[in-house]
Amino acid sequence: MDIIRYLHIAIGTIALLSGAISIIVVKGSRLHRQAGKWYVYSMFFVVASAVYMSITRQNDFLLSIAIFSFYLTWTGKRAVDRNISGDSKRYLFDHFVMLVASIGCVYMLYKGFSNIILLVFGGVLFFNIFVDLKEQLKKKTVQSTQLMTGHIGRMCGAYIATVTAFLVNTVTTTFPLVLWLGPTLVGGTFIAYSIMKWKKNMSDI
Questions:
Q1: Torsion of CA 99, 49, 62, 107, to 10 degrees
Q2: Can you give the residue range of the structural domain that contains 174?
Q3: Are 173 and 179 in contact (CB under 8 A)?
Q4: C-alpha span between 50 and 179 (Å, rounded)
Q5: pTM of the model
Q6: What is the pLDDT of residues 36-61, one digit of tens each?
Q7: What Cα–Cα distance (Å) separates residue 96 from each residue in 2, 57, 71, 74, 99?
Q8: Angle ∠(44,49,54) on CA atoms, nearest 5
Q9: Distances (CA, A) of 198 to 13, 41, 119, 159
Q10: Does residue 72 form part of some domain?
Q11: Is 74 domain-assigned?
Q12: Which of 56, 68, 83, 196 is deepest in the core (most CB within 10 A)?
């Protein structure tokens, strides 16, 4: 367990740094793509180790956050993959991930009656699942703009979860809700701005 925890912290630090680089550098550049890959694969390990620790310790809260983080990371990665390949279809594993995330979302919203943190994160997860489900039901070819805005929103959302985990585990405060929900409030504003800026840049081309 100690080895898993230390690896979780070490690779979580890699995710924190590579995610920051990916956000700061020019989008679409080689450094952006490389840092993005480091972030995604680091997050996959972080989530896997979090799931292992949550099951071992019977910590349903940690498991819920792990599911939340994986869904945003996976769908953010898949959005850009689908855009690059020109194949907007979803595959079996995509549906499996949505099913697991939906179960986690229901649990988070249920527990949200007594835990504001799970209520907020569950609400964000519900919104993203709803957007994906709505896209599937339409059965239309997904436009590149929609995929890329999805990529921006999901990857930034996953990074917010990464920053939140870092702050919660390293900063001591008498107002823990600030650490848990502050990054979501600030990051959500940043996501909205980034998507609007990206759309404007695309319209000017």
A1: 10
A2: 60-204
A3: yes
A4: 19
A5: 0.90
A6: 999 999 999 999 999 999 999 999 99
A7: 31, 25, 11, 12, 5
A8: 125
A9: 28, 25, 30, 18
A10: yes
A11: yes
A12: 68
